[in-house]
Amino acid sequence: MQSSPVIISTLNSALKGQLTLINQSFLHARIAKNWGLCEINEYEYKVSIGAMKDADRLIERILLLEALPGMQALDRLRIGEGVVEIFNGDLRVLEPIMEQLRDGIKCCEAEKDFISRTLLVDLLGTAEDIVDWIETQHWQIDNAGIENYIAAQMESE
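Structure tokens predicted for Bacterioferritin:
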């Protein structure tokens, strides 16, 4: 079943975002693990694996629509060199992903491709959940202080 070029482009843009998120989150997970920050490591790793599964769903959809998934391009990674920088970097990667997903949802509605729309809505919900988690971490840092936050992360081992 073929689809319009605009839908394929939309799905490939979403795929590019997920591929970027896989790499960003995986590296941040391993940085956090190296620093002994277990909760951040576990969460970032979970985000990376989730993005991989979401990328797989996009790839399957693109192939079903008789097109080729664009696997070569990534957006710029925003790697942090400290805990707050890690969270800020993740937000900087997620903001354009979420904007693209919102635009993609509108595009799918205009093209009456409600299956692709449902997929993009799911991805947007996941991205919003990640942003909520990061904002919670910022709140904890603001209220407890970075030193206490890091100590609590290390104690959760």
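The mean pLDDT is 96.
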